[in-house]
Amino acid sequence: MTKENKATVVNVELGDRSYPILIGRNLLERAGEEISNRLPGSKTVIITDETVKKLHLKTLEESFQAAGVEYSTLVVPAGEKTKRFEIFEHLCDDILALRLERGDAVVALGGGVVGDLSGFVSGVVRRGMKFVQIPTTLLAQVDSSVGGKTGINSRHGKNLLGVFHQPALVLADTSVLDTLSPRDFRAGYAEVAKYGLINDPEFFEWLESNWEGIFSGGPERDQAVAHSCRAKAAVVAADELESGNRALLNLGHTFGHSLEGAVAYETERLVHGEGVSIGMVLAHEFSEQLGLCPAEDTKRVIAHMEAVGLPTRIDQIPGQLPPIDTFMDLIAQDKKVSRGQLTFILTKGIGTSYVDKTVSAEPLRAFLEEKLGK
Amino acid sequence: MTKENKATVVNVELGDRSYPILIGRNLLERAGEEISNRLPGSKTVIITDETVKKLHLKTLEESFQAAGVEYSTLVVPAGEKTKRFEIFEHLCDDILALRLERGDAVVALGGGVVGDLSGFVSGVVRRGMKFVQIPTTLLAQVDSSVGGKTGINSRHGKNLLGVFHQPALVLADTSVLDTLSPRDFRAGYAEVAKYGLINDPEFFEWLESNWEGIFSGGPERDQAVAHSCRAKAAVVAADELESGNRALLNLGHTFGHSLEGAVAYETERLVHGEGVSIGMVLAHEFSEQLGLCPAEDTKRVIAHMEAVGLPTRIDQIPGQLPPIDTFMDLIAQDKKVSRGQLTFILTKGIGTSYVDKTVSAEPLRAFLEEKLGK
Question: What CATH class is the domain A8-179?
Answer without folding.
Answer: alpha beta
